[in-house]
Amino acid sequence: MHSAPTEPELAPLFSPALARRGVVWLLAGLLLFFGQVFHYIVAVWPLWALSKAFPVISLPAFIALRHYPRFPMTRQILVSWSWLLLVPSFAAGVYFHQTFFTSITAQVKLLPLLYFFSFLAVLLTIKPTLYEIERSFIRLGIVVAGVLIAFWLFIPDSWYSTEYVVGDAPFFSHDHRGNRIRMSMYFPIIALFFCFRRAVFERSLRYLIGAAIFLFVVVFIVKTRAMVIGVTGVLVLNVFLWSRPAIRVFLMILVPVLLAAIFSVGYLATTFSADVSTGFDTRAISILLATQFLGDDPMRWIFGVGTISPTSQDSLIAYFHHFFFLADITWLGIVFEYGLIGAVLFLLLSVRGLFLYRRLQTYGRSEE
User: Fold this and answer.
1) Residue from 159, 95, 110 nearest 308 by CA
2) Is 178 helix (H, G, I), strand (E, B) or coil?
3) Which of 155, 271, 280 has the alpha carbon at shortest distance from 219?
4) Which region, left, alpha or beta, applies to residue 41 given φ > 0 means left and ψ of -120 to 50 means alpha?
5) Distance separating alpha carbons of residues 23 and 159, to the nearest angstrom
6) Which of 27, 36, 40, 96 sits most deeply, having the most CB atoms within 10 A of its CB?
């Protein structure tokens, strides 16, 4: 008699063993592309091109999943991706007179959603532990932050571009904020939160210094206002959550004063400014144009109107006669292109991910 084939064992995710150096560096090398470190560094053209193509190049790795049961969120990812790909593409044909095959090229930005399958296959193939995953992320955070600090110290001012070309974002640029470097901060910000948490719970000066260095990179080198606001908000929220009730009362008085002081210094003072140099007027006009275009038609608000593909001869700038970028108007830009349904789909991916994380936490504690 032939015994039924057994399912392959899952990765020893919660193993307390020491990190395997080869696994850590292999995972870190792959995370450079899964984490899109080179996604916007056109100057390093081969790595930039590989980063752009990596969602497609890595997708065949999903074949490794065929021997495993369906994983949580698989159906949600596929349904959400299909909706977000197809509905705006059809909508763009109606509202912007794009052909379907032209408008679908505008959704190439959705391809990284498919990393769910390829990265999952990588994890199941090399079977890293949680500690090895942690080491890979933190090392990449340190490397990226270290490179940015080196650039900040040694790159001459002449390398920083003061000219703005539509559709181009120079790696080194200079504006009213001073010299700044545009860099993907995915790994350094994860490392920042990691160090801050360890500093609080372990009363560790070493981790506190690490968190301060990562925060310095965010505030004084990258200088993206939305990023500064987001990071500051997360840190403040966690301080409240981790503090005793008596200390929270004190923090409710102290934190607003500190935030007011911080956002009154240097370029941070322009964070909430309506000055022309901050681009506030451009965004305000974009918001007005977007809401006017959506109008009082519920179909436009619910399903979205799509966008004009970069491969088209037209552009949103030419259509609206304004520097109109959907990314500038954040969630309104998402509603504009994908509709309220699309915005909810994006939110549900994050919410479901948090629930899955909680389940894994509970499982991990039960294994201890």
Assistant:
1) 95
2) strand
3) 271
4) beta
5) 37
6) 27
